[in-house]
Amino acid sequence: MATTSQATAVWEGKLRDGKGSFKAGSGAFGGSYTFKTRFEGAQGTNPEELIAAAHAACLSMALSA
Question: What is the 3-state secondary structure (H, E, C) of the chain?
Fold first, then answer.
């Protein structure tokens, strides 16, 4: 039976001056992000970076098969 992955994310404040945080359900990773890290190239992480990492991990496993 397949397991279900979980994560949480919270955004506080208004869009441009607020801040957010995310955490994997396993507790293995998490981080914070802002409007600037998502849309203006500021140093830091963002949710899209995690999606890219997940896709890269799946692709590398598929290619090894």
Answer: CCCCCCEEEEEECCCCCCEEEEEECCCCCEEEECHHHHHCCCCCCCHHHHHHHHHHHHHHHHHHC
